[in-house]
Amino acid sequence: MNQLADLHTHTIFSDGILSPTELFTKAKEVGLSAIAITDHDTMDGYLASIHIAEELGIQLVPGIELSCYENARDYHLLGFFQDPDNPNLKKNLELFRHEREKRAERIVNKLKRHNIDVNFNDVLDKAGVAPVARPHIAAVMIDQGHSPDIKKAFDQYLSYGKPAYEPKWNFPVELGVKLLNEAGGVAVLAHPGRYLPQQILANFIQQGLDGIEVIHPSHSEETQNYYKSLVDHYCLLSTGGSDFHGSREYDATNFGKFAVPVSSIEAIQSFLKH
User: Are residues 226 and 107 in the same domain?
Assistant: First the structure.
């Protein structure tokens, strides 16, 4: 039987709704042999998963999903096998969390100027162990009766161009790649979507990019084949996963379905040795 791995999952330590214990229990149920915890801009979810992974006999891959930008466009980098105790990586992740808190506070102040009195401490409580983000603000707005649902909160106040919007602080792609590589990990471009131009990919490779997430729920078979051809052409790593959060209708059916052979993990480890 082919052993499968999901190399893209999220927990309550970013924007997922399951604890590490709940996620690994679910992974056991769907027959996964390995998981990478790739919470946004933190490795706390990975660290909190070590014990339960050992207990359930599921291989745990150290992971993260870094929020990055290039030419005013957002990109995400998946990191695998980087050392969570690397001083420079830790320093930059702490900076990221601090900048996100400052951004959230600016959003809350803008909301107050529009007579939406949201308490910043309530937002921090809603975020819990995760880096604070706009969905946490939206959730407090709903709790306090300022908005009927998250979509309305974003459409009226929080989205780009709306009254309380604040640009987010992200890592430049080159810095993100460097942080992951220097911490002993690989940098993989997450869910690049339909036909990322080759010149952009070539630029990322020059900056040290190691791979592409080929298998992802947003990638059609045609898109997967496109990225497979680029992986082969540039001799890159190929990864894949469900991008599981637990909060979306399709998460339950995608978990265990969008997976890659465990040999993909071995390929990353082999790459890091050379």
Answer: no
Tokens found for residue 78:
């998946």
Domain span including residue 68:
4-84+173-273
DSSP string over 43-108? SHHHHHHHHHHHHHT-EEEEEEEEEEEETTEEEEEEEES--TT-HHHHHHHHHHHHHHHHHHHHHH
CA distance 78 to 239: 9
Residue 253's pLDDT is: 82
Judge if 257 and 187 occupy the same domain: yes
pLDDT of residue 125: 96
State the pLDDT at residue 197: 86
240: which 2 tokens?
Answer: 């894949």
Number of structural domains, the chain? Answer: 2
Domain with residue 141: its CATH number is 1.10.150
Give residue for tokens 């080929």. Answer: 214
pLDDT for position 198: 86
Q: Which residues contact 204 (CB under 8 A, 6 or more apart)?
A: 70, 173, 177, 189
H-helix or E-strand spanning residue 178: helix 173-182
**Residue 77: inside a domain, yes or no?**
yes
In a domain, 167, yes or no: no
Of 1-5, 81-85, 114-118, 171-175, which range is least confident? 1-5
